[in-house]
Amino acid sequence: METLSQHVLVLNRLWQAVNICSVRRAFTLLYQGHAQVVDASSGSFLTMDFHQWFDFSRSYSGDDVVHTISFKIRIPQVILLLVFDRLPKKEVKLTRNNVFERDQFTCQYCGLRLERKDLNIDHVVPRHQGGQTTWENVVCSCIDCNSRKGNRTPQQAGIRLLRKPKRPKWRPMVHIQSTRAAHDSWRHFLDLAYWNVELTE
Question: Residue 81 falls within a domain, yes or no?
Fold first, then answer.
């Protein structure tokens, strides 16, 4: 991959991941004073403007640098926008993690609060009865209640829902495909893989 086309993680002013941009775009934002580099390598998450990053790059000996005729500058992995504090306008994704968050990791049939590994997703109206994979038809359930309910509605199984499921109003952190997350330093800002994969039919 061409150096200037590599990916840089973009955070808003609240340190939430909002996008991925190219190295070229990251340097433009840094030079214009619209962003700062977040140096996660030290574990202290220091931020630096363009000139501080330029000075910091002088003693750097790694390969992830951009060379010009007169100087070299290290490629940033994460930048922090100084003028943007929102998340992109986007619907809340229907993911396992977001369903668990909405239902507070609590089985919606028996009320037990459990670890994520001991919970699953249940279709209130089973799919084979025409139930859809929507916010209004999926709930967090424990394995015992899910087995007891089987392929029936709660009414058919003689159990009741604690609360009617609905679409949450909060917005989750932007989902960034794991295939593009090339740097270990991104892990501090992203929750990837299984828990943020959108549920589909």
Answer: yes
Tell me the mean pLDDT in the region 78-87: 80
In a domain, 167, yes or no: no
If you ran DSSP here, which 8-state letter would residue 58 be given? T
Helix, strand, coil tally for the chain in percent (to 5): 30, 20, 50
Q: Give yes or no for a contact between 10 and 19, defined as CB atoms under 8 angstroms apart.
A: yes
In the chain, pLDDT over 70 holds for what percent of residues?
Answer: 81
DSSP string computed for 59-85 = T--SS-EEE-SS-EEEPPSEEEESS--
Q: Is residue 199 part of a domain?
A: no
- Residue keyed to tokens 């960034």: 176
Alpha carbons 35 and 75: distance in angstroms, whole number: 14
pTM given for the model: 0.52
Backbone angles phi, psi at 23, to 5 degrees: -60, -40
Q: How far is CA 45 from CA 40, 80, 143, 174, 184, in A?
A: 5, 11, 40, 20, 13
Residues 134 and 58 in one domain: no
Rounded percentage of the chain residues whose pLDDT exceeds 90: 47
Cα distance from N-terminal residue to C-terminal residue, the chain: 35
